[in-house]
Amino acid sequence: MKLVDPILAFQSELQGIRRDLHAHPELCYEEQRTSDVIAAKLTQWGIPVVRGLGRTGVVGIIQNGTSTRAIGLRADMDALPMQEMNTFEHASRHPGKMHACGHDGHTTMLLGAAHYLAQHRHFDGTVYLVFQPAEEGGAGAREMIEDGLFSKFPMDAIYGMHNWPGVETGTLSVVEGPMMASSNEFHVTVKGKGAHAAQPHKGIDPVMVAVQIAQSWQTVITRNKSPLDTAVLSITQIHAGSATNVIPDDASLVGTVRTFTTPVLDLIEERMREIAVHTAAAFGAEVDFHFKRNYPPLVNHAKETAFAVEVMKSVVGADKVNANVEPTMGAEDFAFFLQEKAGCYIFIGNGDGEHRDGGHGLGPCVLHNGSYDFNDHLLPIGASFWVKLAEASLPIA
């Protein structure tokens, strides 16, 4: 690996920052302490700071030279509403809140790059450091855009990075085009007619209607969309009834739909609605159908992805770069940025968990698990990538 030496020398300080953030997790739009820490560090290093975009977002501005070119580097800040199972020294001090997705590490890697870039301005243009709140379901990226991120801080491209457990530590991966899926949810209520379970003919059983709808929805995936289009339709909750001898008045179906393209999503939503409405009607029931689109598909731009791949190779070596990684049906609100601005999103391997200190939970080191912890060995790697990407994007003439 060809890492930046001053960043390597700063690694212990970066680890301290990361573990402090891990010990003080904050949920979406509550990242006040986190943003305070970020703003204080940037100010200490002589970097101008703008706060308040997306409520708790922070933007640092590093300029050099006379070029009008600019690049955005993004890190997410929020934690998850879950209990940490680790007991090591930097475990969460807030019950029910945990950095189980590595946003503490993402923030620290960008801070590491900021520290170096503020001292070694080997670029011509502007680097915008985008510390984004509320990635975990709060659509913080969209909020920052609506608050004027791209109009107040005009940039040519924006890049993001996420750690990926189960992949060799420090390897970098990306793919052009769809890399992460859209995230959508449905809440459907079947309205029947309650009755005594021993006299079902006097009612309209919403449970049986819900079962018919659930089974029929799977034909949307197998018979309506093209087999070449990837999609997931998962019913994750079915709720009905309160007693063994009562046919309830209603039953509900809840779940998620994931796709890599909007046209496929349009098709699935339309067919789900039609099947639910007409199936219920066939049994004399009615439905309330609610379909919510949360995050769009994350689609990497071709030019920026190819550019990032070359920078990745220069940092970790070609043998540690996967430029055709398998897309995931997980979702990321960085997708909102890529709808508005050219750029790409990459993964950095977090390893299998051997890095964890004694006192970690007995569970696996995977995202959204109570035994997860970010791999601090990634800090100089990710920070070096950000620096090399900025310098390559804004070369000195």
Structural notes for this entry:
There is one protein chain. The protein is of the alpha/beta class. The protein is 34% helix and 24% strand. It has 11 helices and 16 strands. Strands 1-2-4-3-5-16-6-15 form an 8-stranded mixed beta sheet, with helices on both faces. Strand 3 (70-76), helix 4 and strand 4 form a beta-alpha-beta unit. Helix 2 runs antiparallel to helix 4 and helix 9 packs across helix 11. The protein is elongated, with a radius of gyration of 24 Å. The model has no long low-confidence stretch (mean pLDDT 98).
Which helices and strands, and how do they pair?
Blueprint: H1 5-9, H2 11-23, H3 32-44, E1 49-51, E2 58-64, E3 70-76, H4 103-119, E4 125-132, H5 140-146, H6 149-152, E5 157-164, E6 172-173, E7 177-180, E8 183-191, E9 195-196, H7 206-224, E10 231-240, E11 246-247, E12 250-259, H8 262-282, E13 286-295, E14 298-300, H9 302-316, E15 321-322, H10 334-340, E16 343-349, H11 379-393
Helix pairs in contact: 2-4, 4-11, 7-8, 9-11
Task: Offer a concise description of the structure.
The chain is α/β, with parallel strands linked by helices. It is built from 11 helices and 16 strands.
